Amino acid sequence: MPCSPFGLFISTRQSMRIALITNTPPPYRLPIFSRLAALPGVVFHVVFCTRREPNRAWDLPAMEFPHHFLRERFFTVGDRYVHDNPDVVPLLLRLKPEVIITDGFNPTHLYAFVVARLTGSAHVAMTDGTLRSEQTLSMTHRCVRRLVFRGTRAFIAASEGGQALFRSYGVKPEACFFSWLCVDNPRFRPNAPASPPTSAPVHDFIFCGRFEPAKDPLFALAVARETALRLRRKTRLLFVGAGSLDELLRTQASRETHHVDTRFHGFALQAELPGLYQSARVFLFPTHGDVWGVVANEACAAGLPVIVTPDAGVAGDLVLDEVNGYVRPRDITAWAACSERLLTDNALWHSCSAQSLRRATQYNFDSAAQGILDACRFALGIPIKSTMTPQPVASSEKSP
């Protein structure tokens, strides 16, 4: 079987027409889409419901693949944007894809699913969600998923938790594939040509993300304070991001100046991120709920140990407890104890750092694209051979 310039195995079939329906352009998926569109024998189109959701300030790379923006139509439910774009129907009828991939259950995704059923196109369900993240779904939401999954030929998950979610609906393992969420690992690697050179880290901690209650930046500040008390010195904390908690966070940080030296960088462009991560020693990720958490990919690719809650998809997948960091519930004392170990035990820190670098390399754009390609081939009944890029596997190896 031939191999693409990206290292992906491709089919010798004459052509494969694929359309993927997604909400908005995500920077961590665009390089994957470019790889798929560049494959010989693959006609790959991405259909976006909107150019940008109001709560996103992503710095997007060029979209080097065929793509279409639907007429923007959405409404809000809490902090979620629900897309309703009926014009996806005539677009799909014009594109005539053999495979239709949907990565959600908004009305727009459901319209695309109906088109697949009516035209005989193979439907592939793709999710970043996990069994844990969907525990609170209503009966209506679960029924919709069961209905869709019964008419789906292949399934793509972004994590082990996503695979567990599919299994909970009775999906057979052989129909499930992985397409990991990932970043440009070489760009974040310490001393990489694309990464500004840094001296010894100047911050003990970094928090990178939106300043919103669900991300809990105030918890990160509390951990830095408790760690300072344990170390009997000031700790240094770097906040990267912005959000509704900005003013409150700055006010609270001003009250902790005796214990925590806090720096606010603000929103960071993609080019700035490698140097910012490398300026710190430990990444704090106290999320209340992330289906994955691409910021952890960035931190691991920069060689940082990660402390994360069990409420992120990366927990137990990319980030293994006591291997390249710690997975702990949101308890300030427990997080401070882990932080103290990492900041005082150089052998431990270097071991976790090396493990983060090693694990991050396994989550890459080629393997993520291969997972999508293999799922589409499976949905069309095309034989699948082994991929070139090995899939990440859990490790039982513990840090010293």
How would you characterize this protein structure?
The two termini are 43 Å apart. Helix 10 crosses helix 12. The protein is elongated, with a radius of gyration of 22 Å. Strand 1, helix 1 and strand 2 form a beta-alpha-beta unit. Helix content is 34%, strand content 18%. A 7-stranded parallel β-sheet has the order 3-2-1-6-7-8-9, with helices on both faces. A 6-stranded parallel β-sheet has the order 12-11-10-13-14-15, with helices on both faces. Strands 4-5 form a two-stranded antiparallel ribbon. The chain is built from 13 helices and 15 strands. The protein is an alpha/beta fold and 400 residues long.
- Tally of individual helices: 13
Low-confidence stretches: 194-198, 386-397
Please provide the count of β strands.
Answer: 15
The major β-sheet equals: 7 strands, parallel
* Helix proportion: 25-40%
Query: Would you tell me the overall average pLDDT?
Result: 90
Overall, the morphology is: elongated
Strand residues, percent:
15-25%
